[in-house]
Amino acid sequence: MELIARIALPRNWLLLGISLVAWGMLLLAGRMPILPALCGPTGHAWASVPSRVDGMMRLTPPTQWLLSWAIMLGAMMLPLLLRPLAAIGGRGAVAGFVIAYVALWMPAIAAVALASIVLALAQPPAGALIASGIAVAWQGSAVKARCLRHCHRAPVAGGLVEGAAFAFACIGACWAAMLLPYLAGPAHLPAMIGVTALLIHDRRDAPGRQRDDRLLALGALLAGLGAVSTNYPFLAS
Predict the structure, then answer these.
(1) Of the given ranges (4-13, 56-65, 170-179), which has the lowest mean pLDDT?
(2) What's the pLDDT score for residue 187?
(3) Nearest CA-CA partner of 135 in 65, 71, 191, 208
(4) Interatomic CA distance for residues 27 and 47, integer angstroms
């Protein structure tokens, strides 16, 4: 009961509010702020990665990139802070924790976006299939399990150091699944919603949960995205 009461603190409602605003921006825009699709008929060579990144940077101002990543971070990752923040007292400790978390996640999302550029060079749907394979392999790995165990530990005092440690563990647990929305094509918004639900599911119970449970959840997500893209394209537009 004490944990539930602390989760209901005003600062957590603020996080949820920011997350809901971010989701609203995504839904109103009708698309995720994904990278521009610049791959032409001859764009599938691996050597074109530097030129593609250069072209994207010329067409899209850096501030727009940062804004798009911040929106994605706010929508998908801020809800994961509710439980750890419930264990922290003091506004300074909470602020330091959140600042460190966001500061480390921003370059991590940039790295995921860059990886999606590389995977997108493959002939569709190869890139999405490769990303799905990476996500499945990582979901069942011992490294992810160690990261999740850290994610389940309640912070002691909060602040920058513990926020950074939690961010590193969260990045380690989530990075592979974060590839999926970038490569889901017209199903990008359902992919974002599904991945967010998967990440919350990963954290809902004790860290001793079985690997098969995590793999089953990811398998259900991938099957659902495939069904949306194939049978209900109007839901993925």
Answers:
(1) 4-13
(2) 76
(3) 191
(4) 35
